[in-house]
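re: ur msg from earlier - yeah i can do the uridine-diphosphate-N-acetylglucosamine complex, just paste it... oh wait u already did. ok heres what im feeding in:
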Amino acid sequence: MIVDLIAGARPNFMKVAPIIRALDVRRRGGGALDYRLVHTGQHYDRKMSGDFFEQLGIPEPHVNLEAGSGTQAEQTGTIMSRYEKLLVAAPSEICVVVGDVNSTMACAITARKLGIPVAHVEAGIRSGDWSMPEEINRVVTDSITNYFFTTSEHANRNLRSQGVDESRIFFVGNTMIDTLLANLDRLREPSVWQDRGLRPGGYVVLTLHRPGNVDDARAFAGLVQAVCDAVRGLDVVFPVHPRTAKTLARIPRRPDNLVTIEPQPYLEFNYLVRNCKCVITDSGGITEETTVMGIPCMTLRTSTERPETVEEGTNELLGTDETAIRPAMDRLFAGGWKAGRRPALWDGRAGDRIVAALESILSAT
Ligand code: UD1
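and the outut:
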């Protein structure tokens, strides 16, 4: 029985790796499930894709749809038409999508329309912010999903309140955290560590890539300046996403303590996070990783689809107004940041639970 596993963009790769590992283990023990790894090609640069496959031990995809970049509709449409051709020629028993990127929604719609059931990993999370393409991807995907694999009680509640039957909700934990816990002992010093003479606790990590924060050059420059001004002379290490690089190129003057580097591979990026004073970000996934590592995290967004990282973890929402950054930094320097704890089932075994659930779902159909 073939399970399609869809991976398209950088944050997907950490989420599929533990599912693949669990499927491989089961198969070696005589399990009936086999998989087809489908890379949509949404992210195609070595630094956004290939490095992650290599470091996380993900096998070569069986299929690469090579969809590449484009507008929201172009990218979604290309993935849909290419995945449809694949499914018509060679159907699978179930389509497993992860996260909230365009590839997630595109493949879910395509499979369901061909009568192939859809399982969504990281289902049910909601930011309520309709300006984010990811929120639309989440809501559309969940509206046609058959089996919901969830990371939190918040997600379970969201799904129940939308009328999803309990029997279709599988609270399995967090595959991104499976990957983090499996790799904590393998983290690798990046070259910037020596180049800048970085020390544990002696720098801040910044990541920004949301269209709302990076597409407008003036607003983006204001945020970066405010971060660099608030950190009391520490280096601000900033791995620059390709989308952000386009805006950064239009900024004439950069603060002296801003250290821009290329997108980092998984092991090097998390080495930087594990050893920093704090992370300032607009990513969702990073707020989960900082929570598990106990690293203070400031999120430059007004909402989060992962409220457990704020309620239980080390994350705080600062909004997108640059004036919020200095007071938060002052609190951090005064030692007033929460330590946080790990949310339920973020224990490194989500991949195993997902595969066990898939086995029982498919054996019953
Ligand atoms: C996508 C996801 C976002 C995720 C992010 C992580 C959607 C709607 N968004 O946003 O949820 O957090 O990935 O990175 O799916 N580009 C390259 N090389 C690449 C990939 C992209 O240069 O390998 C460029 C593209 O040409 C484009 C820009 O980066 O101009 C944005 O890429 P895209 O995949 O459209 O969305 P992201 O902003 O990366």
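cool cool. The CA atoms of residues 159 and 279 lie 30 Å apart. ping me if u need the other ligands too
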